[in-house]
Amino acid sequence: MEPLGKMTCCTKEAVAESAHPHNGKLVRYLLLLAPALVVWWVVYGMLPGFSRLLTYDVLGIAQGSHLGDSVEFLLYDTPKVLMLLTLVVFGVGVIRTFFTPERTRRVLAGKRESAGNVLAALLGIVTPFCSCSAVPLFIGFVTAGVPMGVTFSFLISAPMVNEIALVLLYGLLGWKVAALYLGTGLAIAIVAGWVLGKLNLEPYVEDWVMKIRTDPSVLPLDEQTWTDRIEAGFHAVKDIVGKVWIYVVIGIAVGAGIHGYVPEGFMASIMGKDAWWSVPAAVLIGIPMYSNAAGIVPVVEALLGKGAALGTVLAFMMAVIALSLPEMIILRKVLKPRLIMVFAGVVGLGIAFVGYLFNYLY
Quick check: pTM over 0.90? Predict the structure, then answer.
């Protein structure tokens, strides 16, 4: 028979653990994350030397050759982008638990345009969005009483000002390019949403959508513990990185080919400042392409390295991300063709303006 005191102590510990089941799991997660971040940092710093060693010493490829440049680019950028992507997706997965679609709808419902456009564009950066969620988000916003222009500001900002693209641009091209991307993307989302709101386009939304109305006060509240939020980060990594890694590898492979085999300055002739038609051409070429931020950023890096103009490349990237043909097809379920054309036209003009502006300034 165990002493009464020991039984009491064990009973108290069991009761405490059962009363706070998340506390023990949270501690375990934190103990796992701390050394994982240290290992991430060490490995990330070793990537340049490792890629050179593997390319020229292990594989025996001649330094300075086209093949060597391409392989070194591939072996360096692939783990670099995937490591950055994993870290960013985990962090954003945690942050997004504070900005669920339901809470976003509640915040934006009833906001007047102008202030609402700015708030919607900012919320678009951190809230969950992909092409497949365009329809339910649009329906949810409209039925919750969010003004049409504010809704469009969110729909433009969410894919265009992509947090993954922002961090990858920072990691690959520096803070200036990342800041330009952030500022211009938000400006397009705010202005384009405001313009679309002033055009009174409600008649061009499918009738069945406009007949649904939801009281924003009855939207469900979101209550999560920090354990839930960390688990959301893990799930985000599994879901997002698991889906986009192939696009990352394809994008880096394309970038590696451009980096190794396209002559220096060649891209300046077709995507440079002197070709006035390069910006609208870049926008038109980008629309039918289907890619995501993680896949297109390595291509952007390679294009800039071969002489393409910054404004033209930014216009190309924004068109690929914000005006993809699959998204337009999905939005057709809730928008009539004329509204889709107006939406694409206003956003496309904004992207072209950004391209010309930065070609002029840089």
Answer: no
